[in-house]
């Protein structure tokens, strides 16, 4: 028994063949701008934490200065005399 033809004339197999793109995604050209130029993954991540680099260097400098110049000498001497 042969399949009955569609009343509307719509054939999903013909539609899929006509809309197939050799590259895959038909909207790829319209989406490409999101991942190029100033919108690359690195550029999007770079602006996520503004000031983090400066804060890290300042904190490291503070820790070094405290260790070198500000010695904690109170309360640690010998109390026997």
TrEMBL record:
Q: Where in the cell is it found?
A: Mitochondrion inner membrane
Give the function comment from the record: Accessory subunit of the mitochondrial membrane respiratory chain NADH dehydrogenase (Complex I), that is believed not to be involved in catalysis. Complex I functions in the transfer of electrons from NADH to the respiratory chain. The immediate electron acceptor for the enzyme is believed to be ubiquinone.
Q: Name one GO cellular component term.
A: mitochondrial inner membrane
* Transmembrane intervals: 48-70
The record describes its membrane topology as:
Single-pass membrane protein
Name of the protein this chain belongs to: NADH-ubiquinone oxidoreductase B12 subunit
Q: Which InterPro entries match?
A: NDUFB3
